[in-house]
Amino acid sequence: MSNIGIKDFILNLNRNKNGIYFWVINLGELGLESSAFKDGEKMPRKYGYTEENISPPLSIKSVPEGTESLALIMDDPDAKPVAGKIWTHWLIWGIDPGIGEIPEDWSSTATEGKNDYGEKGYGGPNPPDKAHTYEFKLYALDSEINLKENSKKKDVEKALKGHIIDKTKLRGVFEP
């Protein structure tokens, strides 16, 4: 007897054009990488808020069939003890699922939200106390998100609910 181990999966309830509901299991193949740093490793200084404040290059791999758009959230969970919340650095939605590569210092063709610096677009790492781990969370969606530019993270996360086909995460460490 053999066992199959599944680390992560997403179970989606879908409805076809005839109104019949069916379950789809996605085994989580979506990938996100950067040529500037490996997952869990140190990010180059130039991506910092007080440095060049440019977004890192990102490579998107294995976008699942049926993906209509992508969304990306970059945040800092380590900021909570200092800032009192998870700090949002970048919100983008309406990313073309066929993009493949998001270049460094991307002039987005997608819609960008307001980060916790109060600015639209990318706001790089700026840890006040110690090294923080920043998370780039990529979502493959079954539809477009209809939100206005400069929307906040809570609005984006609410709009994502029920539309996530797959998701992945890339982590980068940044020191003060």
Automatic annotation (TrEMBL):
Report the superkingdom from the record: Archaea
Gene3D superfamilies the UniProt entry points to: PEBP-like
Q: Per its UniProt record, what InterPro entries does this chain match? A: PEBP, PEBP-like_sf, YbhB_YbcL/LppC-like
Name of the protein in its database record: Phospholipid-binding protein
